[in-house]
Design goal:
Layout: H1 5-19, H2 21-26, E1 36-40, H3 55-64, E2 69-71, E3 77-79, E4 82-87, E5 93-98, H4 112-122, H5 127-135, E6 136-143, E7 146-151, H6 158-163, H7 175-178, E8 195-197, E9 207-212, E10 236-240, H8 245-254, E11 259-260, H9 268-273, E12 277-280, E13 287-293, H10 303-312, H11 315-320, E14 328-329, H12 356-365, E15 372-378, H13 382-397, E16 401-407, H14 409-416, E17 429-435, H15 463-469, H16 478-495, E18 499-504, E19 508-511, E20 514-515, E21 530-531
Parallel strand pairs: 1-10, 1-11, 15-16, 15-17
Antiparallel strand pairs: 2-3, 4-5, 5-7, 6-7, 8-9, 9-10, 11-19, 12-19, 13-17, 13-18, 14-18, 20-21
Helix pairs in contact: 1-8, 10-12, 15-16
Length: 532
């Protein structure tokens, strides 16, 4: 009988969980109180949601800070800190009035000046915020509870930009914190949100504690996605950093933690057979995995080489390197699978299993003569590492001189900024992902730009596509944006700025006693959940 790798890992984990690991964990953690939730979330090292796009930092900020608008379960922006708002007849001036009951954790009231300073700081780094500032004639307070955004031309997607959940999100900070430059980290974790950050119990590298903000006044509407009333049903949440997957799983089985944000896929079947545990997909739209090619250097400065990569990829094979079949799907639209703008324009290139022979021919037509293709491989991110290895093997099969450059993710991030040749420390390909939701926003998402060296890593350039993308903020209706999305996708797959590898959903793992978790793209809110 042949025993699969998954079965071996499952057996080993079950044995380890039953015998050795929990005793170690119990020596480190106290029993969980009924109104305390312990969550394995990862290593939170940066707390300022403006200076980083890290999702764990955005989750931290989601608990501590509040937002002007929030997306409901249908991804429609709804007022959150805002009580009343309106727009002038010429659609150029927006007036916002804060709702009653908003207060900072230090006991002072939230004011319009705080909001103005927060918008200005966030807009230094966020693409959507930069669009606002390009059109802003004035952003200023009228009184303590009211502020205005006056524009030089209408911007129908303003509330969508203010409500977006793709980091960096617009979290409202105190004016004295938001007055810092966007490149300088805020040192205080004082917000107006439903949880207070407990500085006294902070243990960097081990865990961080969040206490219920007893003075928080939720909205009166029912909770709906990230919108509506943020009702906190527990007294305390502790974020544990347990880097070893087996140790974290053992703690979950033993009841020493309640939640694991990113359990290893090899654990899924074991979790499903445990009567006390459950897998739950919170981000039902999933994440899109994709590769970026250095369009400034050989061989991918030639569009035929990029088209070859489009044809080479067997999406199902790439996703199966890290996910069970039931958690993966093919994606052919630059706008993802589940956004209002997903479409099938110019997708005739897709072929189940890929087309390696055609890809090989296109490399030949591109003038490829054996140049080294360097693939950046993040060894501390299993999914991207696995797909990088398969990519290298797939390229070698068609005669491409592919070489892996292993490093941790931090090293990859540093190297991908080099747009030079591989001989000068540059690169050819790296793999990353983003939520399906983020692909609905060509204005705010830099991976959907094609403005050459001014753009995101990979630096594809298409003036025709950029002219279409520039119209996005000007069209007013959903149907107009859908039509524009089809034109953009038609052009995008001609120059191939990105190659899609597939889409996958990643479930969280929890004890069944923990319920009420809110499912939204990317972020994990801590309100609404409760523990039996």
């Amino acid at each position: 009988m042949t025993i699969s790798r998954r079965e071996m890992i499952k057996a080993g984990l079950a044995a380890g969980a039953a015998i050795s690991i929990p005793s170690v964990l119990r020596a480190q953690t106290a029993p969980i109180a009924a109104r305390t939730v312990r969550m394995v979330m990862g290593d939170l090292s940066v707390f300022d949601p403006v200076v980083t796009t890290a999702t764990i930092t955005a989750n931290h900020a989601l608990a501590v800070y509040d937002t002007l608008f929030a997306l409901d379960s249908k991804l429609t922006p709804q007022p959150q800190m805002i009580g009343k708002w309106g727009v002038s007849d010429d659609k150029k001036t927006y007036t916002f009035e804060l709702r009653d009951g908003l207060g900072w954790h230090d006991g002072t009231p939230v004011t319009a000046a705080d909001c103005v300073a927060s918008i200005r700081r966030w807009a230094q780094v966020d693409p959507g915020g930069k669009l606002i500032m390009e059109r802003a004639k004035d952003i200023s307070k009228k009184d303590d509870k009211t502020f205005t955004i006056a524009l030089t031309e209408p911007l129908g997607i303003l509330s969508d930009i203010l409500a977006k959940v793709a980091p960096p999100c617009l979290y409202i900070m105190r004016e004295k914190d938001a007055s810092r430059p966007a490149t300088e980290q805020v040192t205080a974790n004082i917000g107006s949100g439903p949880f207070k950050f407990n500085e006294a119990l902070a243990k960097p590298g081990a865990n961080f504690t969040y206490d219920r903000n007893e003075k928080y006044v939720p909205r009166s509407e029912p909770s709906d996605g990230l919108a509506g009333g943020k009702l906190v049903n527990v007294d305390r949440v502790i974020w544990d950093n347990i880097s070893d997957q087996q140790t974290a799983f053992a703690a979950l089985q033993a009841g020493e933690v309640d939640f694991i944000w990113t359990p290893a896929s090899d654990l899924y079947s074991t979790i499903e057979t445990d009567p006390n545990l459950a897998l739950q997909v919170l981000n039902k739209s999933g994440s899109v995995y994709f590769m970026r090619m250095n369009c400034l250097q050989k061989p991918f400065d030639n569009v035929k080489a990029r088209q070859a990569m489009l044809l080479l990829i067997d999406q199902e094979a790439f996703m199966r390197t890290s996910f069970p079949p039931e958690y993966i799907s093919v994606v052919t639209s630059i706008f993802g699978n589940h956004t209002p703008y997903s479409n099938d324009e110019n997708t005739g290139w897709y072929k189940k299993g890929g087309d390696p022979e055609k890809a090989k021919q296109l490399f030949k037509e591109a003038g490829y003569t054996g140049e080294k293709v360097v693939i950046l491989q993040p060894t501390d991110w299993a999914e991207a590492s696995n797909t990088s290895q398969l990519l290298a093997a797939t390229l070698r099969k068609i005669g491409v001189n592919a070489e892996l450059a292993p490093s941790d993710w931090g090293g990859l991030v540093a190297r991908r900024a080099n747009n030079g040749s591989v001989e000068n420390g540059g690169w050819s390909i790296f793999i990353t992902n983003e939520s399906d939701y983020e692909r609905s926003d060509p204005v705010g998402n830099p991976t959907l730009s094609a403005n050459g060296e001014k753009g995101w890593f990979g630096w594809p350039k298409s003036d025709e596509y950029e002219a279409l993308r520039g119209k996005w903020a000007k069209v007013e209706t959903l149907e107009e944006r859908k039509a524009l999305a089809r034109k953009m996708q038609q052009e995008y797959w001609n120059f191939v700025g990105t190659v899609l590898l597939g889409e996958a959903v990643s479930p969280i793992a929890r004890r069944k006693a923990l319920t009420g978790l809110i499912g939204m793209p990317g972020l994990v809110p801590m309100w609404n959940m409760q523990k039996a």
